[in-house]
Amino acid sequence: MMPPYLNKVESATYYYGNLEYEENTDSWVIEGEPCVVEMAKRLFPGSSGRGQGKAKFKNTKRINGDLNWLMQRYPLIIKDKEIWNKSYKQVVEYVSKRDEFLAYPKKAVPSLEFKGTLKEFQKEGLAFLLHNRRTLLADEMGLGKTIEALSFLSATNDYPVLIVAPPHLISNWKNEIERFLNPPVEHGKNINFLDSTNVHVIKGLKSYDLPKASVYIIHYLLLRGWKKYLTYFGFNTVIFDEVQELRHGKTEKYSAASLIAENVENCFGLSGTPIYNHGGEIWNVLNIIDYHCLGDWDSFTREWCYGYGNDVVRKPDLLNDYLKREGLMIRRTKKEVLSELPPKRRIVQTIDFDSGKYSQLIQNAIEKAKSIDFVEKNFDKGRLVREVVNEGRQAIGITKAPYVAAFVKMLLEAGEKVLLFAYHHAVYDIYKKELKQYNPKRITGLENSKSKDDSVNAFMNDKTNLLIISLRAGAGLNLQKATCVVFGELDWSPAVHSQCEDRAHRMGQKDSILCYYLVAKEGTDEEIQEHLGLKVSQFVGIMGDKAESKEDKNISQNVATEHMNKIIEKLKSKVV
């Protein structure tokens, strides 16, 4: 049943002015008597045309529905009837489907080219995105926002797409695209999928002529330098990952994001935590996604908050209901979809690292690797091999540590309780420094029994949400309050990782545990991944789910030796 405000005004005895379409700005312009113009400006506070006699506002489904409602009271002569009738038809279809979706959630499936499988709640998410082309996907962390966004691209072929993400997630987006999609080589729809490498990562603050691609990825810190270029590039879709990066207005990256979003057909924000502090931050986020969908700032703070300029929302639950009802946001929590989730989910995620610093740190290991062939005694040679591999592990651990910390910060801001595992003390120190504001506690093997117990008690009694633990020092700990396990460094033994996971996955744990393996594309991570059976193209590692026995340790060490030799050969081939 069509809502009354969408009943079409076919004719009237009196018209208060004209409604005309302005093609170059994709806007509707009212020109008429003061009563209708004043009412239009009150109804659309963000309308341009501040002078007398005119009001101009963007051509969107939401605004056009309100425009029809306005014309029921103040009929207007429509100058561009064909364009208006087409827009009106889209509004009616959109509202009807939206109301139907709210009453009976739909499910959609991606195209045959999509290389993944969606869970049932993710199919509902895809259907929601297909119908609401400007919206906030606010599912809790770990529920697959990335895969839902990529399934949308698979279903629509709405390329070229710009993905804006934090720096530490750039590599992961590239890998996930290659894993789930085959972006077409040519822009446009209804074309054959040919290649999985048609992705360009934008680098540097200074703009350059972008190569032809279907997917472009940029991080938020670069947006200010690319504002003019990207605004008019001709994207069909923009995806703002971790869109809470735009929760503060009046910044250069916010201005750039706003201009880019204004010129695309599909605009999605992804975040499990779109606001960090005051509820008013949601206005900034949604104003990027759908301009003035919550009115202008003054009207939003006046009506939703505690008065002009105040950013504390008076009734957050009411705003939440409104956003969902209007198709501006979809949010599912782990508890709501727990029946569809396995008790333990392993996610291998590529993380960036400081390649320049890595080149410096690895030089000593390279020199040692080149000297191994000249060592005669097997005992000395074996010791040197272990030293080289350990130095290589430490080098990659140190250089990716700030990016691991940024990832963990994202989890902590989302309210997760995190166990962060690593191996080297130099790496622990970086974590502690980078995450100092979260009052991290440590169990690294150097602490006495009291200090270790104090750290466990602080975590279990909610005095901290972050516990940094050595991969080899977590045996016997009962930390079932954790919701996420993060491996910033890897161990050679599959069973060690499983044992670390089980510090959280224990009796009393009611949630589905997320276990993140943060790996770099270079350095020793690649060989350890191969040894563990952990591939970036898999969600689930094929690691053993049992404690490490002496036999397991021996088998693991024998196989690990083969991979250590590969590391040595790679280091030998490097030029100092």
UniProtKB/TrEMBL annotation:
Pfam families noted in UniProt: Helicase_C, SNF2-rel_dom
Claim: ATP-binding is one of the keywords in the record: yes
Annotated Gene3D superfamilies: P-loop containing nucleotide triphosphate hydrolases, Tandem AAA-ATPase domain
Signal sequence annotation: none
Domain Helicase ATP-binding: 126-292
Keywords: ATP-binding, Helicase, Hydrolase, Nucleotide-binding
CDD domains, per database record: SF2_C_SNF
GO biological process: DNA repair; replication fork processing
Domain Helicase C-terminal residues, every copy: 406-576
GO molecular function, one term: helicase activity
PANTHER family, A to Z: DNA ANNEALING HELICASE AND ENDONUCLEASE ZRANB3 FAMILY MEMBER (PTHR45766), SWI_SNF-RELATED MATRIX-ASSOCIATED ACTIN-DEPENDENT REGULATOR OF CHROMATIN SUBFAMILY A-LIKE PROTEIN 1 (PTHR45766:SF6)
Protein name: DNA/RNA helicase, superfamily II, SNF2 family
Species annotation: Clostridium pasteurianum BC1
